[in-house]
Amino acid sequence: MKEKLQKIREEAIARIKASGNPDALNEVRVSVLGKKGELTALLKSMKELAPEDRPAFGQLVNDTRAEIEKVMEEAKKNMDKLLLEAKLKSEVIDVTLPAKKNSVGHRHPNTIALEEVERIFIGMGYEVIEGPEVEYDLYNFEKLNIPANHPAKDEQDTFYINKDIVLRTQTSPVQARIMEKGKLPIRMISPGRVFRSDEVDATHSPSFHQIEGLVIDKNITFADLKGTLEEFAKELFGAETKTKFRPHHFPFTEPSAEVDVSCFKCGGKGCRFCKGSGWIEILGCGMVHPHVLEMCGIDPNEYTGFAFGVGLERIALLKYEIDDMRLLYENDIRFLKQF
């Protein structure tokens, strides 16, 4: 029995030292120390010994078990240490490498220009009001003094949902809706997307953005309009900017004008940017037509007002010296990162 126990101990230790991984080590544990292992089988054979020899042999078996477990524990610690070192070596982190940058977007050039315009007019006491993009013909045309078969409808060549509903061609319908409410005086701008059946080129698009303004109060004159737009131009393009009003025709204003600003690139001397004229057209404006006031429930004998409209893309193109409107919509990250 003693010789057999000694053989089990020597073979177990040899197998433990030869184990190259935790799985092999566990196989030794099961085959030697497990419920059906060699030591357990040896203990069960103690009944063959004389009663007086059993305690001594039992102690030898326990000592052998303890010795094998000690060697096995040391082997396990060494294996764990080697595995950890290998893992750390394979998963090493170079702290000198640059970290992954979180790519954060920013405002679109149109948004930057819109916020600048809103800041200027809010500073003058105006309110920013938005309205629906799908509008009734009544508000988009009729209440703006553009009746059926009016030439202005042909000029805008609009997108109709049906004979009564249209994709708005301007943000003026928002003004008509506000005037209808009768809460006077009114000082507002109405930014938003509009739609016209235009060919896509460097300066046109079937979908673009407008900012229109409206003031209704007692004793409002063309001088108020002129002063407002002069201040707006100076705030937007610089304190040295000059304005020029040219007579024009709009169905919903009378008298009407188009407004030019002195070229902020050359100071009005003439350059490629202003095509040598020294002036750049930016918007249309005029005094609200008395008939428009009447259709919206406002007495033209008591109240007067002015309105103006500017293309947001035009502001962005001028302010950032962009020569092609299509760049604003192509989502080219190389272009957008410049702003």
Automatic annotation (TrEMBL):
<feature type="binding site">
    <location>
        <position position="254"/>
    </location>
    <ligand>
        <name>Mg(2+)</name>
    </ligand>
</feature>
<dbReference type="GO" id="GO:0005737">
    <property type="term" value="C:cytoplasm"/>
</dbReference>
<keyword id="KW-0067">ATP-binding</keyword>
<protein>
    <recommendedName>
        <fullName>Phenylalanine--tRNA ligase alpha subunit</fullName>
        <ecNumber>6.1.1.20</ecNumber>
    </recommendedName>
</protein>
<dbReference type="InterPro" id="IPR022911">
    <property type="entry name" value="Phe_tRNA_ligase_alpha1_bac"/>
</dbReference>
<dbReference type="GO" id="GO:0000287">
    <property type="term" value="F:magnesium ion binding"/>
</dbReference>
<comment type="subunit">
    <text>Tetramer of two alpha and two beta subunits.</text>
</comment>
<dbReference type="InterPro" id="IPR002319">
    <property type="entry name" value="Phenylalanyl-tRNA_Synthase"/>
</dbReference>
<keyword id="KW-0479">Metal-binding</keyword>
<keyword id="KW-0963">Cytoplasm</keyword>
<comment type="similarity">
    <text>Belongs to the class-II aminoacyl-tRNA synthetase family. Phe-tRNA synthetase alpha subunit type 1 subfamily.</text>
</comment>
<feature type="coiled-coil region">
    <location>
        <begin position="61"/>
        <end position="92"/>
    </location>
</feature>
<dbReference type="InterPro" id="IPR004188">
    <property type="entry name" value="Phe-tRNA_ligase_II_N"/>
</dbReference>
<dbReference type="Pfam" id="PF02912">
    <property type="entry name" value="Phe_tRNA-synt_N"/>
</dbReference>
<keyword id="KW-0648">Protein biosynthesis</keyword>
<dbReference type="GO" id="GO:0004826">
    <property type="term" value="F:phenylalanine-tRNA ligase activity"/>
</dbReference>
<dbReference type="GO" id="GO:0000049">
    <property type="term" value="F:tRNA binding"/>
</dbReference>
<keyword id="KW-0436">Ligase</keyword>
<dbReference type="GO" id="GO:0006432">
    <property type="term" value="P:phenylalanyl-tRNA aminoacylation"/>
</dbReference>
<dbReference type="InterPro" id="IPR004529">
    <property type="entry name" value="Phe-tRNA-synth_IIc_asu"/>
</dbReference>
<dbReference type="InterPro" id="IPR045864">
    <property type="entry name" value="aa-tRNA-synth_II/BPL/LPL"/>
</dbReference>
<dbReference type="InterPro" id="IPR010978">
    <property type="entry name" value="tRNA-bd_arm"/>
</dbReference>
<keyword id="KW-0030">Aminoacyl-tRNA synthetase</keyword>
<dbReference type="InterPro" id="IPR006195">
    <property type="entry name" value="aa-tRNA-synth_II"/>
</dbReference>
<feature type="domain" description="Aminoacyl-transfer RNA synthetases class-II family profile">
    <location>
        <begin position="117"/>
        <end position="330"/>
    </location>
</feature>
<keyword id="KW-0460">Magnesium</keyword>
<keyword id="KW-0175">Coiled coil</keyword>
<dbReference type="Pfam" id="PF01409">
    <property type="entry name" value="tRNA-synt_2d"/>
</dbReference>
<dbReference type="GO" id="GO:0140096">
    <property type="term" value="F:catalytic activity, acting on a protein"/>
</dbReference>
<dbReference type="GO" id="GO:0005524">
    <property type="term" value="F:ATP binding"/>
</dbReference>
<dbReference type="GO" id="GO:0016740">
    <property type="term" value="F:transferase activity"/>
</dbReference>
<keyword id="KW-0547">Nucleotide-binding</keyword>
